[in-house]
Amino acid sequence: MKKVLIVGGAGFIGFPLTKRLISEKYDVKVFDNFSNQSKNYSNDSLSIIQGDITNRGDVIKCVRDTKPDIIIHLAAQHYIPFCIEDPITTKKINVTGTKNILDAIKEFSRKTHFIFTSSAAVYAPENKAHTETSEIGSLDVYGETKIEAENITKKYASSYGNEYTILRLFNVYGFGDNTPHLIPTIIEQVKKGSVIKLGNIEARRDYIYLDDVMNGFMSAIQNIEVSKNHTFNLGSGKTYSAKEIVDNIGGDIKKHLKIEVENERMRRNDRPISLADISKINKYLGWKPRYNLHKGLTLLLNQEGLM
User: Is the pTM here over 0.70, yes or no?
Assistant: First the structure.
């Protein structure tokens, strides 16, 4: 039974991943400060270590005491408006926090495999699908911190011999997201009425359903020797605009929806397209998405009590 420590295991992605690993008989511990837990979080049968990744002592003690086979690092500040407003705190969480974990591995658990959750935000803007070797160059503070954290991860591996896997997530959606990303924002507005107020409705993003993300993580974990020291995109391989997301809302709800564009919702730097080339993860790990946008949205709307 492999021991897994999930940093950020109470969050939107971390909590369902924790439950999935427990169901597959992994020995799982959760490290979290509970600042932004999943909407459906519960601590039934979980082994919880409360702490903060920006506190080096908390991280050192956790890794020293647990000596996990695998650490999955999901904790991050990722809401772009907050990152822009407070870049110092964002860097402390996303960069210093990552370094604290790597320092703990170096000092107390060299055999631990480190799975780092990165983002499509690391890529320079392109009008085609990003491969893992595409140009790096972010438009925002969040992406810059992920680039720096990726580089630190690789540097520690080359200097100290520990192993890593980097998963670059594209736009994840599903039940439990407390952060006002696009799809949660649309759903909250649907609950209140028929008018959907949006910013840029033409920018295209690669949206990947939460269950497909769980399967991606499980593929990396179950094929750890293959995924070792590799970086993989984790997306759907398709793009949709905000308008198309609204159009994919099914049932009677769709008949009454009306989009209004508000200039104050526009981002100053907004890439026109973000799309994952997922051929590498399919080739190495045999993973591919199972849910298209319509199916994923339908499941989510059911979970939200809207269908």
Answer: yes
Distances (CA, A) of 69 to 79, 113, 162: 30, 6, 11
CATH fold of 3-172+207-234 = Rossmann fold (3.40.50)
Q: Which residue has the tokens 């110092």?
A: 88
**CATH number for the domain running over 178-206+237-275+291-303:** 3.90.25.10
Q: What is the mean pLDDT of the chain?
A: 94
Burial class of 252 by CB neighbour count within 10 A (0 to 12, 13 to 18, 19+): exposed
> DSSP letter at 99?
H
DSSP secondary structure string, 246-306?
HHT--GGGGGG-EEEE-GGG--SS--SEE-B--HHHHHHH-------HHHHHHHHHHHTT-
How far is it, in rounded angstroms, from Cα 136 to Cα 156? 20
Question: Tell me: the pLDDT tens digits for 178-237?
Answer: 898 999 999 999 999 889 999 888 899 999 999 999 999 999 999 999 999 999 999 999
